[in-house]
Structure formats: C-alpha cells, structure tokens
TrEMBL record:
The keyword Transmembrane applies. Residues 548-693 form the STAS domain. It comes from Caenorhabditis nigoni. This is STAS domain-containing protein. Keywords: Membrane, Transmembrane, Transmembrane helix. Residues 717-783 are annotated as: Disordered. PANTHER family: SULFATE TRANSPORTER (PTHR11814). Residues 760-783 have a biased composition (Polar residues). InterPro entries: S04_transporter_CS (IPR018045), SLC26A/SulP_dom (IPR011547), SLC26A/SulP_fam (IPR001902), STAS_dom (IPR002645), STAS_dom_sf (IPR036513). Residues 744-757 have a biased composition (Basic and acidic residues).
C-alpha cells in the first residue's frame, strides 16, 4: 500500500537547519575555537609551569643544539647545499613547530632519506638548467639609419668604418649572449626551498581533507625496507668523500649501478690522507658509541656528544697541521655569519619537481606520524595527528621563505632533549637560539672541518637502519607476505630511485592485499557444548557435528573481487558436508585387520541408521550463511547473495541468512533482496537460524533409492581413511542399533516385498564382502 505522507522532512525545515549550522560555525566562539586548534601555543603557553619546566627545557635545548650542529652540517652535505643551510634547517622549522605542533617532544629537522631524495630532485633540475653561450648576429642597416638628420649630411666612409667595421657593407656583425633551452640558472638551495614549499602545500591539503589515514599504506614493513634501502643510497653517496674520490653526478632510476661502476673505476685515485682521517673518525665513533656510551650513561645524567667532540678534534687538527693546504684534504669552507634574509621560492621550478615534492611530502608525513606514535606510547599522552598534518604543512610553507631543505621528525633528535629534562615545546626554542648563536659567533671556526669526517658520521648513523635486517628473522616463520613486502620494498628502493621505489613498494603492498581479498578463508561453525555459542570447526572434524544443518562463514568483504570465490566456496561447503554425512569409509588397513568382519557389520548398521534418519529428514542439508563475516558488501556482492540463494533452492538445499549488522540490513531493505529471498529466512542470531532449519522437514526419499544407496555404500571400492576408532564405534553402534530395531519393529513388518528383496540382496553382498575379507585374512596368516 503506498504511503500517503513522505518520511522526508520539509524543504524549509532542512534549509533552516543548514542555516543554523552555518551561523553556529561562524559564531565568535566557534572561530576562536578554530583559531586555538590551529595555534595550540595559545592554549599551553599561559599554563606553562616556569618553576618546574624552565630549567629542564633550557638544558634539553642546549643539549639538542650540541647534537644538531654536526648533524645539520652532515645532512647539508647529503642534500648537496652549503653547510650553513644545514644549520638554518635545524633552526627555522624547529622554531615554527612550537606554534603549530601538539607534541611536547617532537623536534623537526633534516632526515637522511629526505635529504637524499631532495638531492636527487636538485640534480634533476640542475641537469635541465640552461647554459649561456656567445652567438653572432648580423644586422642589416639602411641609408635612413645612416643619414644624419640633425646636420642633413650623409655619414662618411670613416664614420661608416667606425660604426660597421667596413666601408662597403651596410651589414653589422653583433656578438650577443644566448641561453640553451631549460631552466634559468638557479642555485641548489632555491630548488630545496621550492620543494619544501610545495610539500608543505600538499601536507596542508592532506590535513584539510583528513587524509592522515593514507599513512596506513606506509606499513611497518614498507617503511623498514624503504629506510634500509635509503641507507644503501646514503652509503654510496658518501663513500666518495671518505675515500677522497671525485665521482660524477648521477641521477634517475638505476643510477646506483653507474655510481658503483664509477667507484670501481676510480679506486686508483684514492686519497690516502683522506682515507686515514675517515677510518680514524669511524673507529672513534664505533668505540665511543658502542662501548663507552653505555658506561657514561650510567655515570652521568647528560649524554656525551661524541660527534661534537670529533668535530672539535677534526677542526683543531686540520687548522694547526694545515691538512687542507699540505695534503689537499677537503674542508667545509667558509660559513656565513649573518642572518639570512627571507625570499620567495622559485615558483617556475614547480613543474619540474612536482612528483619529487609529492613523494617527499608523503614520506615526511609517514615518518612524522610514526615518530609521533612512538612518543605517544613512551610518554603517555595523546597527539592530534590531524593537527600534526597542519603543523608540518604550515612549517614547510613558512620555512620556505628561508634557505632550508625538507624536514620531518627524528626519534633520536626528539628523545635527546627529553633525556636531560626537556618536557615542553620550549625545548626547541632554546635549541634554535643556541644554534643561531653558533652561526653568528662560532661559524668561522667550522670552515676547517674536513668533509670526510662528516661522511664518516653519516655512514655510522646508518647503523640503526641496517639493524632493521633483523626484522626478517621474525617475519619469515609466520608472516610470509610481510616478509615479501619488506624485501620488495628494499630491492625497489635500491634498484630504482628513492621516490619511485617508495611508490612502487606501496603499490606492491596494496597488490598483496587485493590478492588476499580475492582468496578469502571460509570455515564451518558448530555449537560449543560448554558455552552454547558457535565456534569455528575444522573441515576434518565435521563427523563430530550433530544434525544436518551446515553453518557457513567467510571472513572477507563480499565485493567484486571475492564474489566468484564466495560462490565457489558455498558449493564446496555443501559438497564437503553432504559427502561427510552420507559416506561410510572402510580403509585398507581395516580390511586387512583381524576384525574386518566386525567392521563390516558396524558399517552396515551405521548405513541402516542413516537410511532411517533420511526417512525423517530432508534428502539434502540445510545451509545457514553467517553474513557477519562480511565487513562490507557492494552491488555485485549483493547480487551474488541473491543468485546463490536461488541456485541453492533449485538444487534442493534450504538456505538461511544470519544478519546482525544494521548497514547490511538497510542494504537488504533498500534493494529488491526481499523480493527474491523470503524475509522469514533472515535471522538476527545463528541459533535462531539453526532452530528454524531443524524444524523445516521435507518429504523423504523412496525406499528403493535409499536401499540401493545403502548397498553401494557398503560395497564401494573407494577406500578412504576413517579417523574414528572402529572398536569403540562398533560397540556403541551395536547398542544403538538394537534399541532402534526394537522401536522400528512395527515399521519393518509393514515394508513391501520388493524392499525385502533389495535388503536381502544387500545382505548377500555384505556377506560376500565379509567372506572375501575372511579368506584374505587366512591367506595373510598362512604367509
């Protein structure tokens, strides 16, 4: 019966509700709340505990600055920019994060993998940079150009010679500067600032559209393989400086092959003094960080900055021994001691670095969120991941007006400040002020720092990345697919460039997920006698399940990728169930045993009981499909449910559905599902569906068909392994058979003569089988 009134509210009521929501969102209180959410410093700074937190933050900031000086210079060398820009990168982003960040312990700065990805983008742009050359042009002059209109005279041959260089021709030869096609000349730091600007815009858009869930694509295995592969790239990028070899620029997918070949070709040009300094620095870091650091950590409350000690020793030795002049050891060079003025990024470079900026932005977000989650677990407080996207984006956009390169969080950098008492965002403020003092007053002393010491520090820092190889040992025994994702991420990152390798690793991880959804797992359910609930049952345990109601469950989305698999699994389920419930197996070992005659008797009696049970029940099983295993169902999945129901009904299998999810119920009502499936076949609980299926009894088979099947079961040539104990089964089945024969004595007397003849023939066949087995046993005993 059609409805007289619509369930939808009136249009004017909807418009009024929308207008009220808009007025509420534009109210002063709502605007103030939005401002506070974008600037968390307005909330926490007035509540700052100066008496308890100030000195801890001050000591933490100074310690962080001490560690950031050598690290910033080293990361600048990876990026391919002058060293002072590494110090700027440790100052501006970390300072701006104070205003937008919600984490008390996160500290922004350079990251080796990001720096290497930025270096690749810089090299790509520099290769496309236009170059200047001198070109000769010829200008044809006319008499009007040569006529002196002021004096009304024609220029003489002497004047013509002075202008054109000849007396007879009006063509002038002009030399001018021309440029090749490509990007106008640009510095490396301009490319880096443009990348961090574009990456910041992308991160802000991710925050606007709430896309932080995309970081779930960066699984732990993807990131581990990517970071280790990035460590390989960092190693080969710095090994040339450690050996004192000048290697040509390489960029693009697969450039690492050429870099290795260049390294092999230039082994004869190894600089011995540089190698000596590099190996001494590396040995010092190994001894100090691996053996002395644990002992000093128990003796002192502050971590010892071994990297800074190495830098001081290297600068002092190089300056006094004049290593750069006498032995041609390359040093950092002059560092400007002035504050950099702000400038706009080079927007004309965006079309050349778009893909690189996207890869860097997503990688920075993944690393930042990962560090934020670790900080959450370690320090027991909540970090707003959505606001962190805004913070990372705003920091990138605002930092791009200064000479910096892309940044993200680093766990070691974030923890070192907290280890000495830093507990709020002001730790980053004191660290930035200390680094600014280093640039303004101590920067001139850093020009004698050897580059090979920085390379040794960078390569040693990759030790933590290479330790992730130990994850493979724990993944292989149980998580084979995660093991494959880890290895594929590593090889794709090494064999291709950093950005392309990361994107392909993510694609491979998604592909494995799609393949796993196309091959979902299904299982039977059976009632647990102790809890009266339904539990998963293995396929080999079907004989222990009482009744003829099969419960099916598939734990996977029912969508276009798994619909065919679902249909196939349904028919496999029905086939396995009916085969298990209808067949009586006799193994070869049982036939050769001494009690083979008794086993045949027990099998015959079991077949008789099944025949009697089939007289009271349906010929085929009842199937209950538990739909709670479907996280979601699409259009093709719903169509598959309807077609499976129709096919099962046509095949004589009664089908029932168990639906508890409201979303799936709404989907059934909104479509024509109940026009095909009887609504009485849909239940809220598995127990209700099983009870309804047990009460639904159809007409039995004819006596002749059942007895013929009985004879074929008892004399079949197909012998399979029976898991039940034949002796226990024999005793229990004989007792049950005697009781049932007394109860059914009246029915057996009323059977037709034709049925008696078939039964007698069956008994004869069983007797023949028994005599055959007895004779075989006697032969075996004689042998």
């Amino acid at each position: 019966m059609p409805k007289l009134f619509s369930d939808r509210p009136p249009l004017n009521a909807v418009l009024q509700e929308k207008a009220q929501k808009i007025r509420y969102s534009c109210s002063p209180s709502k605007c103030l709340h939005s401002l506070l959410s974008f600037l968390p410093i307005i909330t926490w700074l007035p509540k700052y505990d100066w008496s308890h937190s100030f000195f801890g933050d001050l000591s933490g900031g100074l310690t962080m600055a001490v560690f950031s000086v050598p690290q910033g210079i080293a990361l600048a060398s990876i990026t391919g920019v002058p060293p002072v820009y590494g110090l700027y990168t440790a100052i501006f982003p970390s300072f701006l994060y104070i205003f937008f960040g919600t984490s008390k312990h996160n500290a922004l700065g350079g990251f080796a993998v990001l720096s290497l990805m930025t270096h690749g983008a810089i090299e790509k742009v520099m290769l496309r940079t236009a170059t200047s050359y001198n070109a000769t042009a010829y200008v044809n002059h006319t008499l009007d150009e040569l006529f002196d209109r002021d004096n009304d005279t024609i220029i003489t041959n002497t004047t013509l010679m002075q202008i054109l260089g000849n007396e007879t021709s009006f063509v002038e030869e002009v030399t001018m500067e021309m440029w090749t096609e490509g990007v106008t000349p640009v510095k490396q730091i301009h490319v880096a600032t443009t990348i961090i600007f574009l990456a910041g815009i992308i991160q802000v858009l991710m925050g606007v559209f709430r896309l932080q869930y995309l970081t779930s694509l960066f699984s732990e295995q993807v990131m581990s393989g990517f970071v280790v592969g990035g460590g390989v790239h960092v190693f080969f990028a710095q090994i040339g400086n450690m050996l004192g070899i000048e290697l040509p620029r390489r960029n693009g997918p697969g450039y690492l092959y050429y870099r290795i070949w260049d390294l092999i070709e230039n082994l004869d040009n190894v600089h011995i003094p540089t190698v000596s300094i590099s190996m001494s620095s590396f040995l010092f870091l190994v001894i100090s960080k691996e053996y002395l650091a644990p002992w000093f950590s128990s003796a002192f409350n502050y971590p010892v900055p071994f990297e800074l000690l190495l830098v001081v020793v290297g600068i002092t030795a190089t300056d006094y021994a004049e290593l750069s002049r006498r032995h041609d050891v390359k040093v950092v060079g002059n560092i400007p001691t002035e504050f950099p003025p702000p400038s706009l990024p080079r927007f004309d470079l965006i079309r050349h670095i778009g893909l690189n900026a996207v890869a860097i932005a997503i990688t920075a977000v993944a690393i930042h969120i990962t560090v934020a989650k670790v900080v959450e677990k370690r320090y027991k407080y909540k970090i707003n991941h959505g606001q962190e996207l805004y913070a990372l984006g705003f920091v990138g956009v605002l930092s791009s007006f200064f000479p910096v390169f892309p940044v993200t969080s680093g766990f070691a950098r974030s923890v070192v400040g907290a280890a000495v008492g830093g507990s709020t965002q002001l730790t980053c403020l004191f660290s930035s002020l200390a680094l600014l003092s280093v640039i303004l007053y101590i920067g001139t002393a850093l020009k004698y720092l050897p580059q090979c010491i920085l390379s040794a520090m960078i390569i040693f820092a990759q030790k933590g990345m290479f330790e992730k190889f130990g994850e493979l040992k724990s993944l292989w025994p149980v998580f084979k697919i995660d093991f494959a994702i880890w290895l594929m991420s590593f090889f794709l990152t090494v064999c291709y460039d950093m950005g392309e390798g990361l994107l392909m690793a993510i694609g491979f991880a998604v592909l494995t997920t799609i393949i796993r959804t196309q091959r979902p797992k299904w299982h039977f359910l059976s009632r647990d006698d102790e809890t009266e609930s339904f539990k998963e049952t293995k396929k080999r345990d079907l004989e222990r399940i009482q009744g003829n109601v099969c419960i099916f469950r598939m734990d996977a989305p029912l969508i276009f990728t798994s619909s065919d698999r679902f249909t196939m699994s349904i028919w496999q389920c029905v086939k396995k169930w009916e085969r298990c419930k209808s067949e009586s197996f006799v193994t070869i070992e049982q036939m050769n045993s001494d009690k083979s005659a008794d086993i045949f008797d027990s099998k015959l009696k079991a077949a008789r009981r099944r025949w009697k049970r089939d007289q009271k029940s349906e010929s085929r099983c009842k199937l209950v499909i538990d739909c709670d295993g479907f996280p979601y169902v699409d259009y093709l999945g719903l169509s598959t449910l309807k077609s499976v129901y129709v096919d099962l009904q046509a095949a004589g299998v009664q089908c029932y559905f168990v639906v508890q999810k409201s979303e799936l119920k709404r989907l059934f009502r909104a479509t024509d599902f109940y026009e095909i499936v009887d609504e009485s076949r849909v239940f809220n609980k598995v127990a209700d569906a099983v009870k309804a299926a047990e009460q639904n009894i159809s007409s039995p088979k004819s006596t002749k068909e059942v007895l013929t099947a009985l004879a074929s079961i008892a004399t079949t040539d197909t012998m399979l392994i029976d898991e039940e104990d034949p002796e226990n089964e024999e005793s229990s089945e004989i007792v049950e058979d005697e009781e049932q024969e007394r109860e059914e004595e009246g029915r057996r007397r009323a059977e037709s003569e034709h049925s008696e003849e078939i039964m007698s023939e069956t008994s004869v066949s069983i007797g023949e089988a028994r005599s055959t087995a007895s004779s075989r046993n006697s032969i075996n005993s004689d042998q």
